[in-house]
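Could someone model PXG with this protein?
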Amino acid sequence: MNTRPPRTRSTADWQALDAAHFLHPFTDFDALAKKGARVITRAEGIYLWDSEGQRILDAMSGLWCVNVGYGQQPLIDAATRQLHELPFYNAFFQTATPPAIELAELLAEVTPPQFRHVFFTGSGSEGNDTIVRMVRRYWDLMGQPERQVIVSRRNAYHGSTMAGASLGGMAAMHAQGGLPIPGIVHIEQPHWRELGQGMSPEDFGVEAARWLEAMILQVGPDKVAAFIGEPVQGAGGVIVPPATYWPEIQRICDRYGILLVSDEVICGFGRTGHWFGCETMGFRPDLMTFAKGVTSGYIPLGGVMVGERVARVLIERGGEFNHGYTYSGHPVACAVGLANIRLVRDLGLVEHVRDVIGPRLAGAFDALREHPLVGDVQTCGMMGALQLVQDKARGTAFPAELEVGMVCRGHCFREGLIMRAVGDRMIVAPPLVMTTAQLDEMVALIRRCLDLTLDDASRQGWLS
Ligand code: PXG
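Reply:
Sure, complex below.
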């Protein structure tokens, strides 16, 4: 029986309470308190409803995570069953729980063959903190303790903890809290449109990968522990590297013996049309971070897949690894993860992305190239970006202070569509269960919001 009282507060009441007590992530607290938060109250399939009763098509899957869509009964049942049976037990003191053991087995099955072991965390950020400690521990055990430096990329996102934000390449994050921590360096991102003009994408992909080699030589090959990257940069704006990039990165890592880490927090579990982004991009990581799509965001869970190269050393020569979280292997989270991965498999979602809905998104975004505001388009599986430009013929960007992306995002909100703006890149990462009819509905909404933004831009004289 549901004994919870009905949610009878008005939107204004919710907003006042929110402003009084709730500090939101990545938010200007004062500005939000003045404006009032949008309160999301329920969801079903690919749609959300807010406290005003407006239906919203969620083209961002919550926050790149609700891959199976909202309201999936098998996940709800798995959580409920596990909450009754054993809501919590830890994995620290030589104990384990059945859901954690079974999820570890299933993860070994769906990940590439070099992965047979997993270290569970509560989030992607904790996963990347684990990566930093684990790769340094690996090199200690290998008798090369001077290998400490991890190479990452500008405009990467790897989380918000001290190590996650340090690995990330976001200047605004480094400006707060004394980051990056020592031993983390950054190279430029493989963003052909921004950095590769005058070169073919293929040539640029190789060139961008060689920036890694240049950095290795600058730091000293005997000091570099690992390279980390998202197969496709997500929060940075859905930046899809040229096909030549990752194979060249792999070659360089092999050449210098450094560990290759794939941050699969967004790309994992089918989003790119393969189980993992490294499979789509053609490389073979030694370690992978995952989170989000492992439970479709129904409950927090993350982790690190540890390839045999590292696992064998940690297991056979390591002794105790002094690292772990209360919620490493949380039984309810793992039960939901199991149900979610089985559902992804039963519904054939990876194939749906690869063969049906991903190609349809690519085709629809390609058709948006002729829109006067759209200067460039990129997609990969169920991720897509539309670059808004001031002058289509020359491809020039709008002045940043006009915040055209935010203008477009405002129209999306009002029209019942959630899309992210990263600068002037409008991005989507819809639920993988999206049907073709729903995709067409989403694209029609996007087109309408682009038209409304174009009207604003011409009325304000921003196009001249
Ligand atoms: N790695 C990647 C690639 C991510 O996208 C994290 C790590 C951190 O995961 P947790 O679970 O600690 O948040 C992420 C998270 C955005 C946005 O604005 C993206 C993320 C988080 C918050 C906002 O697109 N990705």
